[in-house]
UniProtKB/TrEMBL annotation:
Source superkingdom: Bacteria
Nucleotide-binding listed as a keyword: yes
InterPro entries: AAA+_ATPase (IPR003593), AAA_assoc_2 (IPR032423), AAA_ATPase_RarA/MGS1/WRNIP1 (IPR051314), ATPase_AAA_core (IPR003959), DNA_pol3_clamp-load_cplx_C (IPR008921), MgsA_C (IPR021886), P-loop_NTPase (IPR027417)
Alphabetical keyword list: ATP-binding, Nucleotide-binding
Annotated family: Belongs to the AAA ATPase family. RarA/MGS1/WRNIP1 subfamily.
Name of the protein in question: Replication-associated recombination protein A
Domain AAA+ ATPase: 39-151
Organism: Sporosarcina jeotgali
Record keyword Secreted present: no
């Protein structure tokens, strides 16, 4: 009887056994050809848990004759790295697989990096965090390849599951298991592209199922029960969490209600209500803006209610807010205008504040030439309120324009007023 988990036993032994990740290790990729020709470059593998980073490394090692040493950066020390270096001196070259490489400390780096640089140690690092954010630049600079792995497709997972069911040496092939193609497909669909979860789920199903005359009978209700929340991945600080926040905002900006709700659901399952609320408030003013000015207060009320309610009830006002933002008219003109003004200041486009706008609330202001301001409220103009034709920008930049209206929703009315006032100013 096997003691190791099924997912461990079914790891690919060579690169030809890898399922999925064809963009990284397919037969037409440079990496595949290099390994087949006996050259293994140092590299970083980046991606979510369970999508095959470790399996890819073991498959690469199995496709070469080099000594293979796996370590974890969270538990390894200087002595472990020195052991790798000593092995490289004896054998000429080793492959070092360093999992959680973003936790690699400076002492380990100082010991290892010269040997990676001279080629005696081939460093393959794996991380769930964005290497451009979390991996030390010294490591990145010595890894010629930074490869992002993707979640496996359903077809890849079905291939892995069937391989496990039929493999007599490493898998479940010696057992008689009654499982339908539809049930295998349901497992593949329910694990969110995670090969480890797919094989672990299959193994759990076998253990939990009844037997009849030596045949294991897989039942639909048991699959549903075990899948549960298996598709949720992320934490409050990981790179994937920020990818989810980014995807939520871009889906709202693109008016895709279903996609926005999907990413909101995933974020709420991860559990960072504060980050979700903050992002929704930003979106209300960044992406909806003047086109639907009522949305900002609505979202503020929804996020405040979510904090007061807590989960799971918080999802209710947040769902309202996300759908309203998706279907609202959109404009980014206000913050773009402010950014243009900030950029102008940084570029040195400045000037003296006009005398009539300067403070006059002190004795001696008149002697400095301050004054002459005309109070707009004393000059009504239709239903607009008060307006008077006087300059406000410094004379040196009087012709600059920062705001460009977006003709959407309520901003159409504001845009018409803006253009009309510009015409009035030209008559000065």
């Amino acid at each position: 009887m096997h003691n190791e988990p099924l997912a461990f036993r079914m790891r690919p032994r060579t690169i030809d056994e890898i399922a999925g990740q064809q963009h990284v290790i397919g037969q037409n990729t440079a990496l595949y050809r290099m390994i087949k020709n006996g050259h293994v470059p140092s590299m970083l593998l980046y991606g979510e848990p369970g999508i095959g980073k470790t399996s890819l490394v073991y498959a690469i090692a199995g496709s070469t004759n080099l000594t293979f040493i796996p370590l974890n950066a969270t538990t390894s020390g200087k002595k472990d790295i020195e052991r790798v270096v000593d092995e490289a001196r004896i054998t000429g070259k080793v492959i070092l697989f360093l999992d959680e490489i973003h936790r690699f400390n400076k002492l380990q780096q100082d010991t290892l990096l010269p040997h990676v640089e001279n080629g005696s140690v081939v460093l393959i690092g794996a991380t769930t965090e964005n290497p451009f954010h979390d991996v030390n630049p010294a490591i990145r600079s010595r890894c010629g390849e930074i490869l992002q792995l993707n979640r496996l497709e359903k077809a890849d997972l079905i291939l892995l599951l069937n391989r496990a069911l039929t493999d007599e040496a490493r898998g479940l092939g010696k057992q008689t298991i009654q499982i339908t193609d539809e049930q295998i497909e349901k497992i593949a669909e329910g694990v969110n592209g995670d090969a480890r979860k797919a094989l672990t789920l299959l193994e759990s199903l076998i253990s939990a199922s009844d037997e009849e005359d030596g045949t294991v009978l897989i039942e639909d209700w048991l699959i549903e029960n075990l899948i549960g929340r298996i598709g949720v991945f992320g934490d409050k600080n990981g790179s994937h969490h920020y990818n989810l926040l980014s995807a939520l905002q871009k889906s709202v900006r693109g008016s895709d209600t279903d996609a926005a709700l999907y990413y909101l659901a995933h974020l709420l399952e991860v559990g960072d209500l504060v980050a979700v609320n903050r992002r929704l408030l930003v979106m209300a003013y960044e992406d909806i803006g003047l086109a639907a000015p009522e949305v900002g207060p609505h979202v503020a009320a929804a996020t405040d209610a979510a904090i007061r309610l807590g989960m799971p009830e918080a999802r209710i006002p947040l769902a309202n807010a996300v759908i309203e933002m998706c279907l609202a008219s959109k404009s980014n003109s206000a913050y773009q205008a402010l950014d243009a003004a900030i950029a102008a200041i940084h570029q040195g486009k400045t000037g003296d504040i006009p005398m009539h706008l300067r403070d006059t609330h002190y004795a001696g202001a008149e002697k400095l030439g301050h004054g002459g301001y005309i109070y707009p409220h004393d000059h009504p103009i239709g239903s607009f309120g008060g307006w008077v034709n006087q300059s406000y920008l410094p004379d040196a930049i009087a012709n600059l324009q920062f705001y460009t209206p977006v003709l959407a929703g309520e901003e159409k009315k504001s845009a018409a007023i803006y253009e009309r006032l510009k015409d009035f100013r030209k008559k000065k």
